[in-house]
Design brief:
single chain, Rossmann fold, 6-stranded mixed sheet, about 40% helix
Length: about 240
């Protein structure tokens, strides 16, 4: 039987008079890659921020591996096994790739400096960054920074990884390697919730898709079902056609 690693039930979040999330509910099965899509302003990043503890929901519950984590602070949620990336990478520019990952391991996983430095090379291999280990983040290309952002999140050894638009800014030729990295992460046993606008990623990388619109869940299902859903075409795909 499939087991839910993340259960979202009735989550709502307001900012003043704006309802950023309204009664959002879904389950994410362990070992899956779920795509989260919707027009700009649909509430996708707000939802990720609520799950990670950056925002507290106004109502509803969040359960992770059967535990209620609703309203816990971000650092405690990270230690429980949830990590996230940002659409715009935020590395330490004056540190190398190896140092960036080691720092993330120290503070995200809560291990000592020596253990973090020993763990970092494995993370760099997973994200295809071994040859960049001594390169300063400020000197990296866009695709390398995207991989480093994923590596820094992986350094906390999460069981659930929330990835915010990893394909944004990448060329068509650069996409396949990012897809391979996401799949290799899933093969290690890490579940992924993936925000993305690039349709190639949604068609080829994910098991299920959840579409959001105006802070609510619109439809969910297999990629082929969702891509052909009339409501999705009207509210989302048509915007980018």
């Amino acid at each position: 039987m499939d087991e839910s690693i993340l259960s979202i039930s009735g989550i709502s979040k307001r900012f003043g008079g704006l309802a950023a999330l309204h009664d959002v509910s879904f389950d994410l099965q362990a070992g899956q890659i779920m795509g989260l899509m919707g027009p700009n302003g649909a509430g996708k990043t707000t939802l990720v921020n609520v799950v990670c503890g950056f925002y507290k929901p106004d109502s509803g519950t969040i359960r992770f591996e059967g535990r209620d984590i609703t309203g816990l602070p971000a650092h405690k949620i990270c230690r429980l096994g949830i990590a996230r990336t940002y659409q715009i990478p935020q590395p330490f520019g004056d540190l190398t790739a190896l140092q960036n990952v080691a720092v993330a391991a120290m503070y995200g996983r809560g291990i000592g400096k020596s253990a973090a430095e020993n763990a970092a090379p494995d993370v760099l291999r997973t994200t295809d960054l071994s040859d960049k280990k001594d390169v300063l983040a400020r000197d990296m290309s866009t695709i390398t920074l995207k991989r480093l952002e994923v590596a820094r999140a992986l350094a906390s050894h999460p069981t659930l990884l929330l990835v915010d638009e990893p394909a944004a800014g990448l060329t068509e030729a650069e996409l396949p390697r990012m897809l391979e990295i996401l799949e290799s992460i899933r093969q290690t046993g890490t579940t992924i919730l993936l925000i993305e606008h690039v349709m190639k990623v949604m068609r080829e990388a994910v098991d299920t898709i959840l579409v959001m619109h105006q802070g609510e869940t619109l439809v969910s299902g297999r990629p082929d079902e969702v891509m052909n859903d009339t409501k999705v075409v009207e509210c989302y795909l048509g915007e980018y056609a």
